[in-house]
Amino acid sequence: MDFKHIIKMECQVNKNEHYQHLLLFAFNQGSKAIKAAHDICAVYGEDAIAERIARDWYAKFKNANFDLKDTPRSCCPVEVDEERLNQLLHKNSHQTTWEPAEKMECSHIAIEKHLHLMEKVKKYGAWAPHALSDNNKNQRATISAGLLACHCSTHGH
């Protein structure tokens, strides 16, 4: 079926349940997950359902799991103790997200998300602030000025 000429429609029922039923219908028809997601998005808008979500549901269906209720999410706490995470990173800034996750009894994804919120990034294998502090900026300026002065004195500029 060609959905290119169909006007985008607003879903009149619970969107997630409706899309899950549509995915099951497409699965039973033998359609691929990505095509099903594209067809749903063609009718309900490009952000209606992600391809990844469709693939996840298809994986359930392939395992003969046709329960259309969403599975409960992990019971890991949404809140991460920022002070404790900073302490763990201070002890070893080269650790992966798995190590503090194990110590804080939550998922490594929760740690990754919280590090992102804390504006920490992995640089040269160590967790560091994304932006330079004023002290870091002053150190860079001092070092650069010293190197420039050294270069000028040795090259006669």
UniProtKB/TrEMBL annotation:
One of its GO terms (biological process) is DNA integration. Transmembrane segments: none annotated. InterPro entries: Mos1_HTH, Transposase-MT_Hybrid, WH-like_DNA-bd_sf. One of its GO terms (cellular component) is nucleus. One of its GO terms (molecular function) is DNA topoisomerase binding. Residues 17-63 form the Mos1 transposase HTH domain. PANTHER family: HISTONE-LYSINE N-METHYLTRANSFERASE SETMAR, MARINER MOS1 TRANSPOSASE-LIKE PROTEIN. This is Mos1 transposase HTH domain-containing protein. The lineage of its organism: Eukaryota, Metazoa, Spiralia, Lophotrochozoa, Mollusca.
